Amino acid sequence: MKSKTCIIIFIIGFILTSIQALAQTLDKETKFVGANGGFYQQPTKTSDTNLQIEKSKNQLSINAGIGFFQNRSLSIGFRFNYFSSVLDSSANSLHSLNSSKIKESNLFWGISSFARYHKKIYKRLFAFVDANVSVGNHTRNLQGEQINGVGTKLINDSYKGSFGNSIYVFVRPGILYLVHSKIGIELSYGNWNLQYTNYQPSNGSGNRNIAKTISGVDVHWASLNLGVNYYFRSKPKPEPKPEPKTEAADNTTTEATK
Fold first, then answer.
1. Is residue 218 within 8 Å of 191, Cβ to Cβ?
2. Residue 138: burial class (beta carbons within 10 Å; 0-12, 13-18, 19+)
3. Pair 108, 55: CB distance under 8 Å
4. What whole-number distance in Å separates Cα of residue 24 and Cα of residue 175?
5. Which residues partner with 148 through β-bridges?
6. Are 165 and 197 spatial neighbours (Cβ–Cβ below 8 Å)?
7. How is the chain split into domains, by residue range?
8. Average pLDDT in the 63-71 region?
9. What distance in Å separates the CA atoms of residue 215 and residue 91, rounded to the nearest whole number?
10. How far apart are CA 222 and CA 133, in angstroms?
11. CA-CA distance, 245 to 220, in Å (whole number)?
């Protein structure tokens, strides 16, 4: 019973402290550091009269950076971006010994600039739209095997990346909730994205390059991101103290008055 009372007192105290601290608003003097990301995993299994296909996809994204408010509605900043995905797929024929197993892995890291527009909905709740342009390094690897009546064919293609070989542009909506004047939790889902990547094959992987552009709207669960931000303000410069008047200055002022 005593422990429950302590917990209730702590919660009430935290709420009261938060409400008092929220007197600080997001304005031109506000800066923030934050990170957001998402993890997604999906296994699928399909079949028809000829094939049985199994797929498993894992995806991880992390973005961390710093931002500066230009006014109460607009903030700009920079981020470090990391993204990785692994897709394992297998296909087996139901009427023969033919089968294939392929593992595709993608890795991207880069730096980006962003602009975010905020709109206050209610007290501590804000809606936002985040526009991000990222430039970085994207690598792609394919490994697997294909089995048929003739034999087994191994697949081992590696497409190395270099900084600048990939450009990402995306716009995403979300909501921000200030749990404290210095801490905000954000949630975003869905995005419009544009991606351009030019893969360069590694030695032994052939002499072909792959350049592709992808654009579209993503409302898959993989686009769900959760993040946290820490807000702070620069300390105001102290105003210079007025110099004390000396007795000689007072006498001069008196003579001038006469």
1. yes
2. buried
3. no
4. 19
5. none
6. yes
7. 2-235
8. 95
9. 28
10. 19
11. 71
Longest dimension (CA), the chain: 119
- Tell the CATH topology of 2-235: Porin (2.40.160)
Structural Rg of the chain based on CA atoms: 29
Gap between the Cα atoms of 158 and 59, Å rounded: 19
pLDDT tens track for 153-171: 777 777 777 788 899 999 9
E-state strands within the chain: 30-47, 51-69, 74-93, 99-122, 125-147, 152-160, 166-178, 183-188, 191-201, 210-218, 225-233
- pTM of the full structure: 0.74
Two tokens, residue 113: 């600039």
Question: Within its chain, how far is the Cα of 197 from the centroid?
Answer: 19
Name residue, tokens 């909501």: 175
Residue 238, amino acid: P
Q: Would you call 249 helix, strand, or coil by DSSP?
A: helix
When comparing pLDDT for 197 and 156, which is higher? 197
Joined together, the tokens standing for residue 112 give: 């980006």
- Residue by residue, DSSP assigns 181-219 as SSEEEEEE--EEEEEEEEEEEPTTS-S--EEEEEEEEE-
Question: E strands along 73-98, which residues?
Answer: 74-93
